[in-house]
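Margin note from the TA: students keep mixing up input and output lines. Inputs are the sequences; the output is the structure of the whole complex. Example:
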Amino acid sequence: MASESEAQRALQYEQTLMYGRYTQDLGTFAKDEAARLRLQEGDTPRPRRPSELLEYTQGRCAPCRVCALQCQRFLISKVGEDWVFLILLGLVMALVSWAMDFAIATCLQAQKWMYGGLDTNVLLQYMAWVTYPTVLITFSAGFTQILAPQAVGSGIPEMKTILRGVVLKEYLTLKTFVAKVIGLTCALGSGMPLGKEGPFVHIASMCAALLSRFLSLFGGFYENEARNIEMLAAACAVGVGCCFAAPIGGVLFSIEVTSTFFAVRNYWRGFFAATFSAFIFRVLAVWNKDEETITALFKTRFRLDFPFDLQELPAFAVIGIASGFGGALFVYLNRKIVQFMRRQKTINRFLMKKRLLFPALVTLIISTLTFPPGFGQFMAGQLTQKDTLVTLFDNQTWAKQGISDEFEYLGILEAWRHPRSNVFVTLVVFILMKFWMSALATTIPVPCGAFMPVFVIGAAFGRLVGESMAAWFPDGIHTDSNIYRIVPGGYAVVGAAALSGAVTHTVSTAVIVFELTGQISHILPVMIAVILANAVAQSLQPSLYDSIIRIKKLPYLPELGWGHHEKYNVRVEDIMVRDIRYVTLNCKYRDLQQVLHSTKMKNLPLVESAESMILLGSIERTQVGALLSSQLSPQRRLLALRQKVLSEDGHRLSDSTIRFQISTETSSGTPARPALRKPLKPALKRVPSSPADSPPAGSTDHSGIALKNLFCANASTEPTEAQGTARHKAKRVRISIVEEMILGDKMTPAEILEWEEQQLDQLVDFSSAKIDPAPFQLVEHTSLHKTHTIFSLLGLDHAFVTSIGRLVGMVSLKELRKAIEGSLTGKGVKVRPPLASFRDSTASTTEADTTALRQLWDRHQHHHMPREAGPGGDDDDDTPRGQREP
Amino acid sequence: MASESEAQRALQYEQTLMYGRYTQDLGTFAKDEAARLRLQEGDTPRPRRPSELLEYTQGRCAPCRVCALQCQRFLISKVGEDWVFLILLGLVMALVSWAMDFAIATCLQAQKWMYGGLDTNVLLQYMAWVTYPTVLITFSAGFTQILAPQAVGSGIPEMKTILRGVVLKEYLTLKTFVAKVIGLTCALGSGMPLGKEGPFVHIASMCAALLSRFLSLFGGFYENEARNIEMLAAACAVGVGCCFAAPIGGVLFSIEVTSTFFAVRNYWRGFFAATFSAFIFRVLAVWNKDEETITALFKTRFRLDFPFDLQELPAFAVIGIASGFGGALFVYLNRKIVQFMRRQKTINRFLMKKRLLFPALVTLIISTLTFPPGFGQFMAGQLTQKDTLVTLFDNQTWAKQGISDEFEYLGILEAWRHPRSNVFVTLVVFILMKFWMSALATTIPVPCGAFMPVFVIGAAFGRLVGESMAAWFPDGIHTDSNIYRIVPGGYAVVGAAALSGAVTHTVSTAVIVFELTGQISHILPVMIAVILANAVAQSLQPSLYDSIIRIKKLPYLPELGWGHHEKYNVRVEDIMVRDIRYVTLNCKYRDLQQVLHSTKMKNLPLVESAESMILLGSIERTQVGALLSSQLSPQRRLLALRQKVLSEDGHRLSDSTIRFQISTETSSGTPARPALRKPLKPALKRVPSSPADSPPAGSTDHSGIALKNLFCANASTEPTEAQGTARHKAKRVRISIVEEMILGDKMTPAEILEWEEQQLDQLVDFSSAKIDPAPFQLVEHTSLHKTHTIFSLLGLDHAFVTSIGRLVGMVSLKELRKAIEGSLTGKGVKVRPPLASFRDSTASTTEADTTALRQLWDRHQHHHMPREAGPGGDDDDDTPRGQREP
């Protein structure tokens, strides 16, 4: 019974402390848990699957049944294959994408129909033009707010964080999926300058997560966490792929945007799923008789034989550089708008009360300005985003080229013509207005992306340059026999790729435009412009997604920039925190308490002793709390009390212990199964000072109760399931209070205090604690470059720095971030001058090794350990040394 | 003086033992070395650079000079920038590629001219047709053989290995560069079915390495090894990019072919350099008036409005699947030819003597079969590879489509027509003949790739299917109003991408064909075919490059295959080697000797003691040898002798010591500077049993001499510079013999033996040994999947397995490879059944943790260490425990 109680307690600890192991082998851990739960389930009656029932059925047609069983097993095992999953994912996403496009097109047509039908009265027209999007956006904002606030925004920043190994709560649930799909449809249906691409990455990821959960009903292979991350990476590719019908560009874009290191092994998954998805997406259009066959989404028809002249390349380079500045400005503007809205306390308080007012207001302003009979006539306001792109990629030249060939604006091209101005003015107004409108609109709390608006602005800018070139060189630049006129549409393609590349800091927008337009003839101009735009934008601003990550304060690791060589000379010893708290193997409970009070670190290093400082592993903060609370628990106190006072046999004691364990199981047993899916709790949560971390310093006299609360708070907040947590917490607290009433009231507070003081002086028994036996270690000389690589490769959030097994410091994501940003901006952590490592590497570092080793060696030789001024921590544990001398 | 002698000895050890630190921070290490050498150089007179001289010049125009100095510094710092390097690399490679193309075209034209000029006599024609390529290939083979045998073959397998972190000797030198460029030009000029793409990857990498060395004359930033690897990755992209004028495809192809994990951070480098290179490559063509403007290399002119019908997709899928089988067959055939040539002892011996006979013979056979008036007329033998591709991608349909529109074969298309057969027969013969010809030709020992031949075969196969479809559906499949005929050229594009994708196991061949043809309209068919081809080929055979890696026995790590789920359940504890030798901190020299004799491991773990088994670091095998040899060195013996016999002051002793050190410096000082560039010695060398590793067991009685030799052999083979090593070795051996004569002859062998036995019983002084303080550690429960990831991410070749700081085993690349291949093929290491981890994870594993920790804890509590039956090793070091008790 005692062993059972221990197992129960271990179970409880595991559930509360699950997340800490994600730097190690969490896939395995999750499987262990699954196996354990499965074995536990085996004892309880549960509905068996038919296949299992068959094995117990004995009859005449047993061979036949066995055969059927094997077939079934084969099918089920096939369900577990990757390609089945990827095909299903591609299929579902293509259907979602197509259905959403259909709904959006219907919405936009309805607006156009309303606007067109009311052409008798301008005021009514205006009302219709303005009200329709306002209602849609307000509905979208409200719906998302109510159902799942996580669905707001692009989703790419969050996916980047998730793929880095951090689990964000509720980001991949069905509720968020529904909220995002419906919210996005309404938002795009309003005709605001919003995009569908970023949200689609999120939608595809949610779809993959849900599908994975669904398929795990059939086979056991979907439980692996590492595999799920691989599938999420593929899903991101599917998201972009089926949004633009651009499989290659989708894969590359999703890699660039979400990954730091990419496993080439996963490459085919992305290609397979994205191709299948794009294929189905386009086939649906053919079946719907929208298209005759599968072609590109925004097909261009530029001439193939002479796409551009070599001498036009400077113009393309100018587009690239200007787009770089423009992209940086867009990111800056977007961030400033968000920060401005946050800072204005009065506005903010008002808007927080009326959450839907801000979206409505923004929509009102933007739709008023685009009202076609009003200001919209100067900026082609009546065109939808799709129509705008189609016209901008048009094959013809808009500007007048002499008197003879007056260009006729046909169909939707009509929108760009204004009787009292020329096309240049319209384009400039369009670019300027759309620029701030897009930057503003993407801050609305609805599901929306910024890629497509930026893409359109870039196309317009390219068109502007192209038209200017065409006006400047009416007969083309080429001076040979053939006259090849300049194709402004080609410039629009280049501009679109360059500006979207600059905003997102990606090169693969080039591939996306080739796939979107179905023409690759402009490959070199596009590549040159995109690379130049990236070079400029990356040196000025972070990418839009990184900017959002910083605004939302998601855990991130900045990239090492282009050619910042000084970083090759910074080492871990320059940035590490030397003064860290640690737990020694021979410490007392009082030391644990002190460590808990003195630091906020989530993981505490466990060293052999304060003298040797040999790192044995890392222990969770919560584990330490658990050790303490179990040492000071009322049960133990009661046990001690009873043993002292009554000297009875242990029968009644074990009885009460069991009662406590049953109640604990009731409270913490339920979230065990869902928690299994999410061992990746963000270790870098945004709330560094939760109540659990900082109990009032004066409460040590009642530390039994205080620590109990500390532990309970931890236990109830950690197991990562939001729904039901509050309920469980309440239940558990109630139970513990009840127990406190039943068992603990027989001692006076003074007695309790005395007993606890006594308990705190005991040595810690680590045998029941979960210890990560191999926390990641670095050496002092590891370069910043290498450290960054390892952190981003393995998704670490901290690493201990050791010197021949001895703990000398710690580096966390924070220090690394500071060091990288410090070296980038000159602020933050001071980095050493470039030759710093040359300066002191000559003798001191190699000597340090030798010295440390020699000490260790000396110690073994003479068994005489000189007490070192070790890095901080438990200064009052000298006694164990005395104890150890026999 | 004693400290100087120690420093000297340390220097010697470092130089001999440099390579072992590459798992840690070798960039830093290289820098340390550089700094140390620089500081040392500071004492000796050396030619100063102008900038340094200026600082010492005091004069009137000092401010002006300081300004000039700063300008110069700015320029030099700019030279260190990445983009300067990348531009230079792109420029040089574009020039090389263009010049080589020009030379190849001239060669081919010369052959055609000769063949055309001799049309009066068929025999003369035949002689000219056959002799010309034979001479060229023989010259190429002979030239490469003499100058640099490393230039033979594709180069991609070697680059894959190098990018994994292993340095292959002589693969990136100027000599190899020259051999490869000239050899490749001759080989391709011969008109054999060989490709330029693989060698170009190698050439670009060599170019990058040379450029990096050249630029390091200006700035100090090119010394970083990690950075050089990044630059090599970019260079691979440049190689493919400027070969096909395909920047995007080049980057992707090089990533897929050479990397396992790719740093997205390096992505832009590849794009930047490849785009610049492709741009210059095509601009050169424009300037040479070959082209009017920049267009694709093999431009196609398929119709844009209706590229293909939806109902043609099954035909494309068939091409994909057939290409998959064909690709696997090609890899198999290629490997079998190599293995056959190796196995046939008699043929082999003959060919080894006459090395140039095999290339000449193969060329003779192939060129005889392609002789246009002979068999060549049935397989378009007169066309060069480039012409073949141009004709295969042709826009027209070759097969007769009714009587009215008889197709006229114009120009080079003529070659495909044969009066007595139809185009189908010609195509089939072409495919069959070229298939084995290409597989055979790529085994010739000249610089050559297989990509282009395979690409051509794929195009021909696609064309065959396309022509068949066109003959089957003369008016197209589409039954609506418009008649869209089938475009067989599109099928050729699909086939080319699919077959080359299948052979190389890449998806990015799709992108390469888009860039090569300048049209992306067939994107979906191409993607579908490439993915299907990959799926089939990957399940049948390794990629061509992996196949060559295995044939050449380069160190490699197999990929985890598609959806092999059982590997998620294998753990490190299942595959690790438990019985490993180790070095304890308190061991005696005799133990070191035993460890050296009993194992061949390159890195020995250093543990605290045999009882605790706490891992402190890893020590090089050669370091251990050095420790032993210094302990048993004649100098020490002489010292002991003198002290014993003469009881003199230490003056003359130190004198002799210095003499020895000076001689050592002379012998090992020279290779220090070059060795700095190559700390990455392959730890997985192909020669596991070098003479240094297995000294005869009976030689322990003369171990002073034996170990000296052991050490000398190590010292001379390790510092990785081939040229001059033999000389140094001879010199050093001579010196040591001389010293042996001078100093060591005063003792009889019996005395020496006694003295050495005495020395061996002393405790080891590790203070002078270099110890890697943080070897990579895994835990027993780490999954195979995770282990594979970590090994390939960090380029490890071994990792120690620890359990709470205690060493329990080791995993090397070999075990990992066995485990992965075992689970793939069923042979090799037995993997555990899928549920193995479920079976025992429930209790035992967590208990193992607890038990180990409890032991440690018990040990601290009671200071009583029960001797465990530890994993093997030093069983005779019980005495230290007695010693440690005071």
